[in-house]
Design brief:
Blueprint (H helix, E strand, L loop, with lengths): L2 H4 L4 H8 L6 H24 L5 E4 L5 E7 L2 E6 L6 E5 L1 H8 L5 H6 L3 E5 L2 H16 L32 H11 L1 E4 L5 H16 L8 E6 L4 E6 L7 H6 L3 H7 L7 E2 L8 E4 L4 E3 L15 H4 L2 E7 L11 E3 L20 E3 L7 E5 L4 E2 L11 E8 L1 H6 L32
Parallel strand pairs: 1-4
Antiparallel strand pairs: 1-2, 2-3, 4-5, 6-15, 7-8, 7-11, 8-10, 9-17, 10-17, 12-15, 12-17, 13-14, 13-16
Helix pairs in contact: 3-6
Length: 419
Amino acid sequence: MGTDVTGTGLPWVEAIVEAFPLHGFVEFHRRELPSLVERHGELVADDLRGVPPLAFRLPDGTCFTWRATDAGVEVLEGDADAATLVELSETTFSELVDELLTASGAVRTGRAQVVRGDLASWQRWEPAIQSLCSGRPVYSSAVWATLVDREGAPLDLGRAFTADDDEEEMRHFLHVAGYLHVKDVFTAEEVDRLGAEVEHVRSLTTPGDPYSWWSVDGAGQEVVTRINYLGRHSRDLDRFCSDPRLVHYARLAGPTLRPCDDRLDGPMVFIKHSNVVKGNGDLGWHVDDGIGGHPVMCPLIQAGVQLDHATPENGQLLVLAGSHRAAKHWYAWGAEADLPVVALETEPGDLTLHYGDTMHTTPPPTADGAGRRVLYVKFAEPKTFDWVPAGCHYNDALFRPEPDGRIATRATSWDDEGY
């Protein structure tokens, strides 16, 4: 069964949760958190300065408030001073600590309720919570100092490599920057053949197909923006997941990475359309573990075979360099300030790689008639295959029908406020 129709509450999801130790709610706040603040408080102090307090409460009323201090965070019992109050179970709180869930994932799956304040106020705290628990820094302009080559000189963030370039240099670039652009990996004939297979699958894809995402353009037409599990209709695309060149470059991120041909959406294509007015055709800044599952899915590599030119006119890929190494805030387009935003301009046959946890986006095309296509194959470690069964994705919750029947894959089933 495909991920889009599996829904949530699956036994395998519960098995993942049970594989991680339960963080007792009271024990964590009274013992673990003060210890974490002592070790990692300096990582979050600047980020939290001036942020209103946040409280977590169990259904039985047990409650603790997180308050920002010059040393990082202090913990208070009760919620009297908290601007934002979240009610959740002890298990859900433990999932948040382990990054099996995010704030968004907890709310969207009904595991948590924002009783006071709003989700955005909770999310404002989220990078600091992840930083305290993991020891990763909070992403900021300080990342510029870390974006250096093996000799310590600043990386050329717009660099495109070739197959003849030093492999260790490419490996270093990918690990430090979180993405890689390799030119002319595939021939024009191969691109034509892959493109023809993609179009064959598109011809068999219809609105409401649970393996595809649909949006609405300015003319009121439904347009397909993503098709998952392309191998359902194309043996060539299914076999292509194990292409030696894909495997070679993906394994610059780790020697045990395997192609996700039968899970995590399998081989898929993104199709950019101009003038999308409703739907997920233009993805804002995001990560692939946005609802949770970081320790299950990461490191995850997205290997993108470029079937068309990529420019601002047809909605190219943008990344935030080095963001895969940090806990991150959610950014709106134009709010990146002095962060290292990199726009990847590619040609047909080029290969791009980026970590799923590198913050990335595909903004709206600036011209009409975009139509840009990218064929993606994910690569993950064996642990991901152990935890996530074939035909499933950790993000299955994204496709659970809402009470009103709205489903994320098809924009016309949403209400007027969108998804």
